[in-house]
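Much of what follows relies on a compact textual record of a protein's fold. A record is reproduced here so that you can trace the correspondence yourselves:

. . .
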Amino acid sequence: MKKLFTLLVLAVLGFGYAQTCADGFRAFTHFGGESCVPEDPQRIVSLSDMEMTLILADLGQTDRIVGSAGRVLEGQPPFLRGPRDLLGLDYTNTDIEFVSTDDFEGIAALEPDLIVGTNWNSNELLQYEAIAPTVLLQTHADNYFEVIGRMADLVSETEQFAARRAAYEARIAEAQELIPNASDITVTMLLPAPWNGTFELYERHFALSQVIEDIGFAETPEVRALLDDAVTNDLWMDLSPERMAETDADFIVSTYEPNFPSQATPDLIRANWESIVPGL
């Protein structure tokens, strides 16, 4: 009886057992566990415009996306942050419908055969899985290509991904030839946050961090110590102005965001810095 009980527990928990999927589906391991996903998904709902939707669109899979979360700013219609800025794709010129991540009825109404999201959507995983197979990817992985490669695998575009990664690596090699001493140059990713009088120290900032790392730029021991000590959600930490010296480097990299009025241009970013650390 004890042996039978143990076997039943193992079966329920799935320890040591590969998941068996129906015809037309395959097992796919992701941040949320293991799911049976369509071998050829055609109706995808994305829970993140800047991460999942952008990657899908960049892989040429826009026509498969039936719905996506987006941004809603006062006085503006919803928009796709990332796809609109980098690829010129938005709700207005595609068949992608706007959905909110907590609008489960709206998502279900789109009849998706696959839902893709990030680790930030894990609390609602059961609700999404009740609608369609759901895959959550860890978007701030140490290597951003891991995220893109996993998505390429999910939609069976691994050959395209491999070719485009090879092209990227060729461009990185060109940059390394132009900057042969990159390992002697320190770079820190900082963003001003004037709304609370602090600045943000980033560990991973999507593709930008990947490029900085791949070229071979270094970070200071002081910055590494700060990041190892207290990074919020493996992404950033807030620091007060008096700690600016701890984050100093040969170059400080900040970004601007055209979609947000207070961060829309490089000049505004410089003004934001001036308001926090005068004379920087």
